[in-house]
Amino acid sequence: MLFDVLPRLLAPGKGPRGRLGGMGSHDPAGEPAEQVASVVDEVEEAAGEMDRARRALAGATRVAVLTGAGISTDSGIPDFRGPEGVWTRNPAAERTSTLAVYLEDPEVRRQAWQNRLASPAWDATPNAGHRALVALERQGRLLALITQNIDELHQLAGSDRSLVIELHGTMRRVVCWRCGAEGPMGPTLERVRAGDPDPACLRCGGILKSATISFGQALDPATVSRAEEAALGCDVFLAVGSSLSVYPAAGLVPLAKEGGAGLVIVNGEPTPYDDIADAVVRVPISAALPGLLAAR
Fold it and tell me: What residues contact residue 56 under an 8 Å CB cut-off, 6+ apart?
C-alpha cells in the first residue's frame, strides 16, 4: 500500500500535507482522504525510523551485519518464507532441503539437481544493498558480515571473504556425503545438463549435494562460534532481510543486545525482535541501506 501510493503523494507540487488541505472526502488523485492520511502516517513513521537507524549507525565503529534472503530479492532471487517465498507458494519444495529425505529418496535428489540447475542465482548480480555493505567495510566500520544466504552475492559485490561468515554454506560448491570430497559446483551441473539426473561422487560413488546446510544438518561449530563472537563484540548489530525466526542465526540478536549493542532491523515483514530494536526500517532494502550506511 505505502509504495503504491507514495509516488502520487510525492508528485511535484503535491506533497503529502498539501493533499490533505481540502474539505472534500477525496483527494485530487481520487484517493479517499482517510486512505491518504493513513499513508502519510506510514511515510512519516518510516522517515522517523530511518532517522533513528541512521543515528544509531552513524556513531558505530564495530558493526556486525546479519543478512537473510530479503537482501537478495532485488537481485531476482526469491526468498523462502516471505509472502511470495518459494516455500510459501510450494510447501512441498522444502523436502529437497531436508537432509534425511534428500539422502534417502533418489527422486528428491533428481528434483533438487533440476532446481539447482534452474536457480536464478546463477544469473543474479549484487544490488545496491550488497554494495552499501561493501561501502561500510571500506569505511573501516564492518566487524563481520554474517549471512544466512548461500548465493555469495556479498563476495561478488566485493566484500572481503575473510569478513563474510556463511552460516548456511554456499550453493557454489558441491560436497560428497560419504568421503567429504569438495569442489566447485559448475562441473557437476554440467553432468546434470549432459543427462545425469543424480550425479554421484567421482571419487567414491557417494551422494553429492551442494555445500549448504539442509534441515536436519548441524551447522559448523567453528562458523557459529565466529558469528557469536562478532555479535558479542559489536557496538551495533544490523539485521537485514531476515525473518529472524531460524536459529541459531536469530539467537545472535539477543546475544548482541546482552553485550550492550544497539539493534537496527531492516526487513519487509515484522520479526520477533522488533520490540527490542532501536529502529525498525520497512523501506525496501536496496533503497534503505545506501542512505543508512553512507560515509559519516
Answer: 236, 262, 264, 278, 279
